[in-house]
Specification:
Catalytic activity: N(1)-(5-phospho-beta-D-ribosyl)glycinamide + (6R)-10-formyltetrahydrofolate = N(2)-formyl-N(1)-(5-phospho-beta-D-ribosyl)glycinamide + (6S)-5,6,7,8-tetrahydrofolate + H(+)
Protein name: Phosphoribosylglycinamide formyltransferase
CATH architecture of one domain: 3-Layer(aba) Sandwich
Pathway: Purine metabolism; IMP biosynthesis via de novo pathway; N(2)-formyl-N(1)-(5-phospho-D-ribosyl)glycinamide from N(1)-(5-phospho-D-ribosyl)glycinamide (10-formyl THF route): step 1/1
Helix content: 25-40%
Shape: globular
Organism: Flagellimonas okinawensis
Number of strands: 7
Number of helices: 7
Strand order of the largest sheet: 3-2-1-4-5-6-7
Strand content: 15-25%
CATH topology of one domain: Rossmann fold
CATH superfamily of one domain: Formyl transferase, N-terminal domain
Radius of gyration: 16 Å
Structural class: alpha/beta
CATH class of one domain: Alpha Beta
Enzyme class: transferase
Distance between the termini: 11 Å
Amino acid sequence: MKRIVIFASGSGSNAENIISFFREKPQVEVAAVLTNKSSAKVLERCDRLGVPAFYFNKIAFKDSDTVVQFLEGIQTDLIVLAGFLWKIPSNLIQSFPDKIINIHPALLPKYGGKGMYGERVHQAVKENNETETGITIHYVNENYDEGAIIFQAKTKVIPSDDANSIAEKVHQLEYEHFPKVIEKLLS
């Protein structure tokens, strides 16, 4: 059995979608969800879904091997960043080479980097009059949004779209493709 751990910082809609997808796949288990925000809504979702979820602070994440040891202890095969906003520290990347993936709400290399997440990305797409946007699933390295691209999917942006309607189109791509790409990586 393959074991994935999801890192999330917010509401956890992508985490819930991934958990639900793999409930039907006995060869893959979402072993845990980790968050850097004690008030993150993802914790409530995990409680409702019966998935172990844990909060960690900056010291446990960046200044010690606490998180790495936890992940090794539960024999993690893949780490999935789903709306997780902190930069991944070198010790975690080195402990799980090519085993950490992220989803970004734009077609990288456009609209990536530090500070480019969520509504900021969609607003930038609108302000630059893009005719398309989408999602990028990529490996994580030491730099924000610069790891090797695994998969991209596109959607059209029309002049009447605003940041909210762009976000909705991008979320639909995330829900459709992210679990399938994870499954393919694990097979």
